[in-house]
Amino acid sequence: MKRRTAREKALQALFQIDLAKTDVQDAISNVLEDQPKDAYLEFLVVGAVDNLEKIDEILKANLENWTIERLGNIDRNILRIGTFEMLKSTDVPVNVVIDESIEIAKAYGDDQSSKFVNAVLSKVKLHLHL
Fold first, then answer.
1. I want to staple 101 with a disulfide (CB 3.0 to 4.6 A). Which of 16, 56, 82, 90 is the partner?
2. Residue 80 — pLDDT band, cuts 50, 70, 90?
3. Cα–Cα dist 45/13, whole Å
4. 33-49: per-residue pLDDT in tens?
């Protein structure tokens, strides 16, 4: 599975976990739809869930005039995946993470999502000194 697809599937899984309180492994199975397991998808979903508190603290520190709870589910989970990937992925450059997050926001979010995701993740990048 391409990494873009893994990121999109991770967004779908986190959306299920966030809204329906679906079990992590069940959410991953649901989005795979009988496709073979994917290590990067698993890395993103399990990592984002396991590090949720730290990720949300980083996001809260970089949101202006917003709370994490007030964000739309799509934007919030794109930001969580992007922040996790910046923190833990050793082989994906930070600018690639931001660009991929923007493209996913264009595909799944509303008209303003891509600009919002770009602004927040750019601040996160500076915050993390990456």
1. 82
2. very high
3. 7
4. 989 999 999 999 999 99
Q: Nearest Cα to 45, choosing from 75, 76, 85, 73?
A: 85
Greatest extent of the chain over all pairs of C-alpha atoms, in Å:
41
Question: Do the beta carbons of residue 27 and residue 16 sit within 8 Å?
Answer: yes
- The residue type of 21 is K
Tracing tokens 């329906």 back to the chain, one arrives at 20
Smallest CA-to-CA distance from 14 within 32, 33, 28, 29 is with 28
Mean pLDDT of 7-23: 95
Q: What is the mean pLDDT of the chain?
A: 95
Residues 6+ apart with CB under 8 A from 78: 11, 101, 104, 105, 108, 109, 113, 117
